[in-house]
Design brief:
Number of strands: 9
Shape: globular
CATH superfamily of the largest domain: NAD(P)-binding Rossmann-like Domain
Bound molecules: NADP nicotinamide-adenine-dinucleotide phosphate
Helix content: 40-55%
CATH class of the largest domain: Alpha Beta
Number of helices: 13
CATH topology of the largest domain: Rossmann fold
Number of domains: 2
Strand content: 5-15%
Structural class: alpha/beta
CATH architecture of the largest domain: 3-Layer(aba) Sandwich
Length: about 290
């Protein structure tokens, strides 16, 4: 079993770190708001540290799951950041959804560490149930070292290519989800306007070619105006911003993704920042 440090005990990080403790690892945690770290230690045992550097200095493996590029920069490269403090040969894995460029920057920061960018998909339920999908970028040696650790909370782990490739794969995931959700929102809007019973409609067409995870799990709740199912509109806008920046760098156009990004901006302006991503329907129906 390894000595593991987990930095960032939010919606995702808290249960992920818990799975590592349950798997028998010696886990040290750091969280910006100390009360959350205290609650985690009370629930799972282990230790907590006052700074990312103190948390990271003796660890075999350091994992992060914070908010965005700036947050990640602060806990890794800032004063008291984890990366400079880590011992040679240790493994660093970042689960935050961030830009591919910061992933590459962290991978290049030291040449005596194993480094992996490893954003996740599967939401809060996936983190709680230990059933996340993890998309990794980095060297095969880093991936081989990380795989048995990440298995504590993953159902599927893939190495997608060199540093940054995990983040690029997560962007592909978000492009695909944005389009599906807008299609589903318009489908529900149409069905209700046409006087159809939404439950019967999705029960039938959900067995055909239009089926999707979003249709199976969200069509019913969207039709009832319920938008409290995890992944928040604010996070989706951050992710689509990363996608559109990367598309600009690649000199390609993603017109539907750019439009859905604007639609999420409308949902934010309607007060939906913390509602889940299926709240796209609110632009059509004020339930
Ligand atoms: P969250 O609940 O807001 O938690 C964010 C964590 O990062 C908190 O522990 C927060 O500390 C910490 N943090 C933020 N800024 C920091 C800073 N500058 N310095 C130190 N710590 C900082 O977010 P989450 O839902 O767990 O999401 C985390 C990441 O996973 C995001 O990149 C998100 O896009 C991605 N993700 C989320 C989901 C989901 O369903 N939630 C799904 C897939 C991917 P405090 O406790 O002090 O605020």
């Amino acid at each position: 079993m390894s000595s593991i440090t987990f930095i960032g005990l939010g919606v995702m990080g808290y249960p992920m770190a818990g799975h590592l403790a349950r798997a028998g690892h010696a886990v040290t945690v750091f969280n910006r708001t100390p009360a959350k770290a205290a609650a985690w230690v009370a629930e799972y045992g282990g230790a907590r540290a006052a700074t990312p550097a103190l948390a990271a200095r003796d660890a075999d493996v350091v994992l992060t799951c914070v908010g965005n590029d700036d947050d990640l920069r602060q806990v890794t490269l800032g004063p008291d950041g984890a990366l400079a403090a880590m011992r040679a040969g240790a493994l660093f894995v970042d689960h935050t959804t961030v830009s591919a460029s910061i992933a590459r920057e962290l991978a290049a920061f030291r040449d005596d560490l194993l480094v992996l960018d490893a954003p996740v998909s599967g939401g809060q339920a996936g983190a709680v149930n230990g059933a996340l999908t993890i998309m990794c970028g980095g060297a095969p040696l880093a991936f081989a070292a990380a795989e048995p650790v990440l298995a504590a909370y993953a159902k599927r782990i893939g190495l997608m290519g060199p540093a940054g490739s995990g983040q690029l794969t997560k962007m592909v995931n978000q492009i695909a989800i944005a389009g599906v959700l807008e299609g589903l929102a318009e489908a529900i809007h149409f069905a209700l306007a046409a006087g159809l019973d939404a439950t019967s409609v999705f029960d039938v067409i959900g067995k055909g070619a239009a089926q999707s995870w979003q249709m199976d799990n969200r069509a019913g709740t969207m039709a009832k105006g319920e938008y409290d199912f995890g992944f928040a509109v604010d996070w989706m806008r951050k992710d689509l911003g990363l996608v559109l920046d990367e598309a600009k760098r690649l000199d390609i156009s993603l017109p539907a993704t750019a439009l859905v990004d604007q639609f999420y901006g409308d949902v934010q302006a309607m007060g939906g920042r913390r509602q889940d991503t299926s709240a796209l329907l609110r632009r059509f129906r004020s339930l």
